[in-house]
Amino acid sequence: MSFGPKHPDVYSRHQKLRQIFMENPDAERIFHAIGDVVGEHRAAVDAGSEMEARAVAILGNSGTGKTKSTIHGLERLGLKDTVVGDNPRSFLVIKLKAKASLRGLCAGALTAYGWPVNKRDSAEEIWTEVDGYIRKLQTSVLVFDEIQHVRSAGAVDRADLRDFLKSLVQPGQSIVIPIVVGTPDFLEVLNSDDQLFRRCRQVHTRTLETAIDLEVVARTLNQYAKAANIQLTKSVKNREFAARLLHVSKYAFGTMCEYCCAGIKQAMLEDSTELKIQHFEDTYRRNIDCVPALNPFVAADFQNIQIGEKTDFR
Questions:
Q1: Phi, then psi, of 216 in degrees rounded to 5
Q2: Which of 186, 204, 222 is a domain's end point?
Q3: Whole-angstrom distance, CA of residue 267 vs CA of residue 269
Q4: Do residues 58 and 194 both lie within one domain?
Q5: Are 260 and 267 in contact (CB under 8 A)?
Q6: Record's Pfam families (predicted)?
Q7: What is the pLDDT of residue 313?
Q8: What number is the average pLDDT over the span 261-279?
Q9: What does the pLDDT look like over 196-223, one tens digit per residue?
Q10: Which of 125, 229, 249, 286 has the fewest CB atoms lying closer than 10 Å?
Q11: What is the dihedral of CA 15, 21, 27, 33, to 10 degrees?
Q12: Do 128 and 251 lie in a common domain?
């Protein structure tokens, strides 16, 4: 078995698999929530009337596919995912860092537009520049990813960030729709301000359950296998395997999709035309470096194995 440079096509095929969007109920709810807010925004602009400012909060556990579903929903609405140099830029994604601050958020937005940040500029000065680009490049949506980091900021930064988000949904002042994406920890901040709470439409993604979602796992794996032109063996076409895959995924839909792609990648690296449970066993062992007794694809009592926070199946 040989990997690396001898299999360059495998890595490109794997990336193409990962780009496939798998429809799911959460993604549909996210789409409709964003669609309502964007629709009202567009109607107000067309009518020349004062916009009823609204935000959308997409909250759920890590790995549930929140960000990917948000971007997919925006694209379904005709808002294109763009890069620096494009004009217009319908929406922008700004990812908050662990040590969140208002200046850091504003700097992230300016950088996303492709403009350098002056180290001496304050948050207000930076945002003035961002505001100009919002207008020039016709940005109608700003997506703030990893919004839960606002909660872990210091008291002053947390208050500044909360007040900033609230300023984006002030009637008569809003020129852009804020969409915040993150874990349920952000609810503490959202619930701390009545006005922000009232003007923010919430969508909560769910975790999958063994009792009702095994068919979802089977259907998703089958779709990826068809896209990769690989056959499923009996070892991955049964309820026990689906339960194992769910457990490894920590019952998160987005993570489960990544694991499906990773198992298929392992099969492709081995030049196999069939997908077997051994491919998932090998992938988990290679990433975690564990004994068989701690491998959820091998162990009889896999439900009792604690899956690490930083498991990466790519």
A1: -65, -45
A2: 204
A3: 5
A4: yes
A5: no
A6: TniB
A7: 52
A8: 97
A9: 999 999 999 999 999 999 999 999 999 9
A10: 229
A11: 100
A12: no
In the numeric block, which tokens belong to residue 193?
A: 């301000």
CA distances 303 to 162, 254, 255, 299, Å, are 40, 20, 17, 9
Residue 216: give the domain boundaries: 208-304
Cα Rg of the chain, angstroms: 22
Kindly state whether residue 122 falls inside one of the protein's structural domains: yes
Judge if the upstream peptide bond of residue 88 is cis by omega within 30 degrees of 0: yes
Statement to judge: residues 219 and 176 lie in one domain: no
Whose structure tokens read 């009337």?
49
Q: Interior CA angle at 110 toward 105 and 116, to 5°?
A: 120
Q: Vertex 289, ends 284 and 291: CA angle to 5°?
A: 90
Instruction: Report the b/e string of 225-251 with b at 16+ CB within 10 A.
Output: beebebebbebbeeeebbbbbbbbbbb
Q: What burial class does residue 50 get, using C-beta atoms within 10 Å of its C-beta: 0-12 exposed, 13-18 middle, 19+ buried?
A: exposed
**What pLDDT score was predicted for residue 242?**
98
Among 178, 204, 230, the domain-final residue is 204
**SS3 category, 7:** coil
SS3 at position 202: strand
Q: How many domains does the chain have?
A: 2
Residues 6+ apart with CB under 8 A from 90: 74, 78, 79, 80, 82, 138, 139, 140, 141
- Confirm if 151 and 190 have CB atoms less than 8 A apart: no
Between the alpha carbon of residue 202 and those of residues 143, 186, 196, 229, 254, the distances in Å are: 14, 11, 11, 38, 19
Instruction: Please give the Cα distance from 259 to 113 (Å, whole number).
Output: 33
Cα–Cα dist 99/148, whole Å: 11
Quote the Cα angle for 84-87-92, to 5°: 55
247 shares a domain with 117: no
